[in-house]
Design goal:
The longest helix is centred in the middle third of the chain and has 23 residues. The termini are far apart. By secondary structure, the protein is an all-alpha fold. The model has no long low-confidence stretch (mean pLDDT 89). Helix content is 81%, strand content 0%. It contains six helices and no strands. It has one domain.
Amino acid sequence: MKTLRRLTIVVGIALFLVLAYPLRSGRSLRDATADEVSQQVPYALHILAVRHPFKVGLVRSVLNSDGAVDRLAQDYVRNNMNRQDISVFQCYLAYYVIILDKDEVRKAIADGLERDLGLA
């Protein structure tokens, strides 16, 4: 009986830590997820620059000396996220997918931007 109680406490603490980790900055879960997504955008732009060196790479090289192109793309992705109705479960899922597999998320963001910009 004691081991079951200890196991329940350990699982409860682990679950609490997993659920509370994205909220450590004091912002909402949606904001934390949007921040994680927007942090991946410059890497996604780099992927696009490699795929489309003249359309994206050249523009980014010329205009991004102060990070203006990256910020514009981050704002675009964040606004797209804000327009979607995302549940709490989807926010947690997206947050931890980003944390655990950044490369796939970056490719997915690059694919989405490529489609939205008509580069595909």
